[in-house]
Amino acid sequence: MTPSIPIPAQWPARYADELYRFALSRVSDANVAEELVQETFLSALDGLATFRAEASERTWLFVILRRKIIDHYRRQARATQVSLDELSEGGATEADFFNPENGHWTGPQAPASWLNADAALEQQELHDILLRCQQRLPAQQGAVFALRFVEELSAEEICQELGLSPANYWVIVHRAKLQLRRCLEKHGLGKN
Amino acid sequence: MLRLINCQNATLLLDQQPDRALPWGPRASLWLHLRYCPYCNRYAKQTVLIAEWARAAATSRAHSDATLPEAAKERMRARLVEAGA
């Protein structure tokens, strides 16, 4: 098989839909997703020299798009970056979940059983609720959560990308998880 | 010495666990806490489920049937040509 030579002008017709679906699965906003695809093509054109003929053009474009998505989250997190003391602004803090005097769950916040979680909601419904809950997180928490649990970057990589200290990172992840857990429960989980 | 920890500390340790090997002390404290706290036991399972669902949800969304309008693709093609493609 002769190695394929990329023809950039044909990329939109060949790959735009697939790349767009992937971008949309990560950022939800159609305009942002479209922009990420556009940026992917332009960066690919710029870096055409780095394309190795034995690799698949499609895989290569996806690698670039994934980098664009990480950059997008980094901008989202950095635009709202606040110090640890101010992390509470615009979001729930530990005091909303735990008794400040003894650090135990406050009555109504204590996790309910999700024993029949899978049966309680259709999978699609569960995914939709989780997405809505993610969208309600403060921007920095949403970005960190997505980088860690959707893009599956390591804690170390995220700290590096976002210029966070490990302590700061843990507070953000913990608060994001606490809020998502509560949001999911409020919207149907745990009512068995 | 085994330290008793509260739910706030226990859940923080639970969220750290996938990313860092907990030292012996905190690990033992967490183990002990989970022996008697049903709520943190639930949290332990739920925090793992949330991570799994987030990944699965994004994967399933990537298999949607969303498409870009032809006009958008044409705009992209034009930008590429303009940029030297």
Helix content of chain A: 55-70%
User: What is the CATH superfamily classification of the largest domain in chain A?
Assistant: Winged helix-like DNA-binding domain superfamily/Winged helix DNA-binding domain
Helix content of chain B: over 70%
Shape of chain B: elongated
Q: How would a crystallographer describe the biggest sheet of chain A?
A: none
| Whole-number mean pLDDT of chain B | 93
How would you describe the overall organization of this protein?
The complex is a heterodimer of chains A (192) and B (85). Chain A is mainly α. Chain A folds into two domains: 72 residues, Rna Polymerase Sigma Factor, Chain: A (Orthogonal Bundle), CATH 1.10.1740; 103 residues, Arc Repressor Mutant, subunit A (Orthogonal Bundle). Chain A has eight helices and no strands. In chain A, helix 1 packs across helix 2. Chain A is elongated and about 65 Å long. The longest helix of chain B is centred in the middle third of the chain and has 25 residues. Chain B contains four helices and no strands. Chain B has 85 residues and is an all-alpha fold. In chain B, helix 1 packs across helix 2 and helix 1 runs parallel beside helix 3. Chain B has one domain. The chains are: A mainly alpha (192), B mainly alpha (85). Chains A and B meet through helix 1, helix 2, helix 5, helix 6 and helix 8 of A and helix 1, helix 3 and helix 4 of B.
Question: Top keywords for this entry?
Answer:
heterodimer; A: 192 residues; mainly alpha; Rna Polymerase Sigma Factor, Chain: A; Arc Repressor Mutant, subunit A; 2 domains; 8 helices; 60% helix; B: 85 residues; 4 helices
Briefly, what is this?
The complex is a heterodimer of chains A (192) and B (85). Helices cover 60% and strands 0% of the residues of chain A. With 192 residues, chain A is mainly α.
